[in-house]
Fold this sequence. Notes:
- This protein has 273 residues and is α/β, with parallel strands linked by helices.
- 44% of the residues lie in helices and 14% in strands.
- Helix 2 links the parallel strand 4 (52-57) and strand 5.
- The longest helix has 22 residues, at 206-227.
Amino acid sequence: MAPLSERPRVASDLLRTTEATRISVAIVSRNRPPALRRTLASLRAQDRQPWEIVVADDSEPDFAARVLALAQEFDCRYLRASRHGLPANRNAAARHCRGTHVRMMDEGQAVPPRHWRHCEQAVARDPEAIWVIGECAAPWSISGGSTIYPARLFRAGIVFCEAFACGACDLEFGSRLHRLGYRIRRLCGTDVLRSGAGDGRGAPSAAEAQEAVAAHIFAALAHGLRYQPTPANRLRAVAAVLRTASRGPAGRVAVRRAYRAYRTHRREVVLPR
């Protein structure tokens, strides 16, 4: 893995996060420079600035130079990721952040004015909590790409599951954090906006679509059978497995992959009694 580039900070009269609460932004990027520009411009337009911004780049070589140039233009630290998928990229970005907290973001997101003030105020109120920021036009849930985490989680090895390159592994992560006793709170008063057409996002390939289905089943199994094993959650997990398996050979392959990942993850993750 390539080292982070270390550029001198650009002099600015914008206020940065206080020293006591140093909130880093970890942005994961893959093949979408226009979407990344939108996100970085949105952050740099805030009246208060993040303590640092780390761009973890999982792009193909044809896009990597453009992503690096954007990171330099917007005074960010740049990490050339290992290209092992989205959860692995999130983990790499979080591990390289130097702040007390990590604000995860995806390229293509934009934030409204005063967003960063709301983030700082929430962390100051409850620095041990995990703060989830709802996204406009989407049901609220724990989102790996729109959440503030205490950085010590990642330093202690509590990380996103890397069994899948894409998909809903952040749903498993949120359920696991809740099971481990962490407070998960919604940050009210601000929001996140997703970019629309023209940001470089293409339709997923057949392999990516199947990977996403397997990741969703994995999250359902972990949530319903281990982290929150209520009768209703168990029933939902079984129903998700049966529904997916009934779709034919591709569905059964996804179920088998999800179950293997669930068994491996169960051995690796120790829960309190």
